Amino acid sequence: MNRVRLLVFNAALGVLDYRVPPGMTIEFGSIVMAPLGPRQVLGIVWEPERLNAQEVPESKLRALLDVMPVPSIPERLRRLIEWTADYYCAPLSAVARMALGSMAALRGGGTTTEYRLTGAEPARMTPRRAAALDALQGEQASIRELAELASVSEGVLRGMVGAGLLEPVTVDLDRPYPAAWADFAAPDLSAEQRAAADTFVTAVRDGEFAPFLLDGVTGSGKTECYFEAVAEALQLERQILVLLPEIALTENFLRRFEHRFGVPPLLWHSSLKSSERRRAWRAIVRGEAQVVVGARSALFLPYARLGLIVVDEAHEVSFKQDDGVRYNARDVAVMRAKFESIPVILASATPALESMQLAEAGVYRKLELPSRFGGAQLPDIQILDLRSEAPERGRWLAPRLVEQMKDRLAKGEQSLLFLNRRGYAPLTLCRHCGYRFQCPNCTAWLVEHRFSKRLACHHCGHEVPVPEACPECGTGDCLVACGPGVERIADEVAEILPEARTALVTSDTMNTPEAIGDFVAMAEGRAIDVIIGTQLVTKGYHFPELTLVGVVDADLGLEGGDLRAAERTYQQVAQVAGRAGRGEKPGVVLIQTRHPEAAVIEALANGDRDAFYAAETEARRDAGAPPFGRWAAIIVSSEDQAEALAAARAIGGTAPNLPDMMVLGPAPAPLSLLRGRHRFRLLINARRSAELQKTLREWLAPLEFPRGVRVNIDIDPYSFV
Ligand SMILES: Nc1ncnc2c1ncn2[C@@H]1O[C@H](COP(=O)(O)OP(=O)(O)OP(=O)(O)O)[C@@H](O)[C@H]1O
Ligand SMILES: [Zn+2]
């Protein structure tokens, strides 16, 4: 090759042609550095016929500068990147960027210097040194990262190096990870688990594309089953990717994995330290990382020898990314498996309707685990009608639920209260004038957080201290909290069960791996009587002494009426109910609701999952909703409301008139102001036969908008706000 076409990491530039200087060896997928004006730009060498670009005459081509000393992006990943960009109407370069680690990872191996405490006592102790000594126990990282960890300046740490309190350590960037043992602690599987596991093992051995839906009730041992497939892939020296919906779940997973395979897997997520990120990425591309566990972002990495993908809790909506490239990691995982010719396992106790449909249609092979492991029974689910069994005034827990909690406490068993609302109260107002605290940047109420004594916006992060007086009328001590959040439920539990040991589990309290680890250890060690949590505790956890689950407000998710409201409610309640009675003692679930007649609540009460899926399937079919029809959203935003509206109208005004596609809107988005941007939405409902993406691209391409306007396309949207 003496001339190459590059995909460069700049959406505005996209594709550029270069000359290959003599002596440089290049192949498709090579990651290279190229000159761009006075600067340099990173790019991937791509098949020229697959990228549109202006033909540049030979004489005008500039020469590439350098090839990065890392393996090339494999062809099967290049095809996946193209597919993703095409399907989600996203810039190719934005998708390709997700395959790369850091610049440092691309520059090559070698060594770096990190620092750690020497253990020496300081001759001169300052408060900042004391804080640093405390924060840096057991840590080893660059000065910059340590400074961040300890919240002190780099100067303080350099002073500590000088004083012999910190010492430099030379670290090999590519030092290997300890190896996992396929049969470190293999469990005895039940017959039904064995059948599923054997099918997976065969599929891993065959090494062909094979999508599976592992549909097993809560506590059936889905993890143990897919671990057998992981073990097989390990034996074949193939890499394994396990996607989890939330980083909060990884702590629990890591422990189980280590228990089964002897070492922890490799973690990949957005808050890795840069040195860890570099090491992990390099091990992944060289094929040395055996098992990678991560959130969405682990999906596009250039695995050298991928042999299996597992998507656990595959129904979770957090697999859908709602900024940048708006892709659904569950769906792209299946496509990746297809391009890699490997099996992919979607595991869930409450599969998404879309996945069920694909299983029904024979696209996915469904494997079922209909009973809990070890003879544990599914919990007894009871409805608590809040209209006839109202909580006391100013309280949120009905007497029957309180009685049951007292009973569990007396027996030394655990209870879990679930309410999917962070903070103390979702709305705060002035008793005197009715003033409501609203976010200045978003269409949203500020949520009171008692622990941090602040009012916070859950959309943009805006925060103010709780004021002493109403900013509107000036009356002091006049603020009333309206409605419950988990913090308020925790207060109520403290009042009714003062002797109970409680744990509040939300993203506010469980924000570090240590916090999560401590929580799990305490819950397992029976040092917690009552867990109060958001959706963070609904899945993945296994606490044998937990025998009571109270759903504080099952109607919460049904409000707002988005397309998947019923399904989401079903999944959330079924998942949290699934935490009860996983050990030897049976579990009871009390669902507080004002709508016991709603189809989803009835299905939950009767444990009739099939009825729920059947009714929901019919409703979707009638509405032409996914999976029977397709949705896409166009979101138009600008800091200037008039500008956003004009752009949205221009889009609406040029909507194509097609028999298999319906365009709704533009209308102000439910979150009409978000992070200071005014937002309008259009919703497109298309038949499956429609060429949705092509139509969207052709529709929007000729339109031009002022610089401040952003137009985002969301294919298969999950969020309608
Ligand atoms: N064959 C087995 N041998 C020993 N323990 C098992 C076996 N199968 C499952 N278990 C244990 O039973 C518990 C439940 O299993 P697991 O967490 O895998 O279920 P799950 O199907 O993933 O549940 P959920 O969907 O509720 O998270 C775990 O503690 C697990 O270790
Ligand atoms: Zn806000």
From TrEMBL:
It comes from Novosphingobium silvae. Residues 203-369 form the Helicase ATP-binding domain. Component of the replication restart primosome. Keywords: ATP-binding, DNA replication, DNA-binding, Helicase, Hydrolase, Isomerase, Metal-binding, Nucleotide-binding, Primosome, Zinc. Zn(2+) 2 binds at C439, C442, C457, C460. Binds 2 zinc ions per subunit. One of its GO terms (biological process) is DNA replication initiation. It comes from the Bacteria. InterPro entries: DEAD/DEAH_box_helicase_dom, Helicase_ATP-bd, P-loop_NTPase, PriA, PriA_3primeBD, PriA_3primeBD_sf, PriA_C, PriA_CRR. GO terms for cellular component: primosome complex. The keyword Membrane does not apply. The lineage of its organism: Bacteria, Pseudomonadati, Pseudomonadota, Alphaproteobacteria, Sphingomonadales. Zn(2+) 1 binds at C430, C433, C470, C473. This is Replication restart protein PriA. Belongs to the helicase family. PriA subfamily. PROSITE patterns: HELICASE_ATP_BIND_1 (PS51192).
